[in-house]
Amino acid sequence: GNYIIQSYDSLFVNMSNLVEGGVPGATVKGILRLQEFDSNHNLLFDWLAFDHLNIADYTNLNLTNPQITWMHGNSIEIDFDNNLIVSNRRSSEIIKINRISGEIIWIFGGPLNQFEISNDLLNGFSKQHDVRRLTNGNLLLFDNGNEHQPAISRVVEYEINEINKTA
Question: How sure is the predictor about 17, in pLDDT bands with cuts at 50, 70 and 90?
């Protein structure tokens, strides 16, 4: 009876404190927020990306703009261990989040990638959608492929080793 939603917040951030050339009153849009509610609509879990990730680490974004769109979440998966797997299309990354503490467990893809990818001719995914954990433990996703050369879309399945951080 519980349900999980995603939404976006915006904040005014002094980006000059975070990156060289940053705008003091920059608007950071697309700050992903995940919330879980029980069947009586009581808030059980509230996660805001700004509290757990450092936007200054996102070198794929122009952090000197007066307006920055940080994230584009497009799927939430409850993993076998009851934690959350979230797709952030904007930075081509998949984030696993502890469903109790909100701490980041790992990041696959994007500028903060922690995984070594092998046996993938395109060396990873780009602007993905709909990340799902399969019964065999693998991750399945739709790779939009916007940044592949040449741009090509595909469905890709990764065998993930969360201990050794390999895919």
Answer: very high
d(C-alpha 78, C-alpha 99), whole Å: 9
Condensed to tens digits (0 to 9), the pLDDT of residues 65-88 reads 999 999 999 999 999 999 999 999
Cα–Cα distance for residue pair 122/53, rounded to 1 Å:
27
CA separation for the pair 104, 91 (Å, rounded): 16
Measured over the CA atoms of residue 76, residue 78, residue 80 and residue 84, the dihedral's sign is: positive
The first and second tokens of residue 101, run together, are: 């503490």
Q: Give burial (CB, 10 Å; 0-12/13-18/19+) of 6.
A: middle
pLDDT (mean) for 112-119:
97
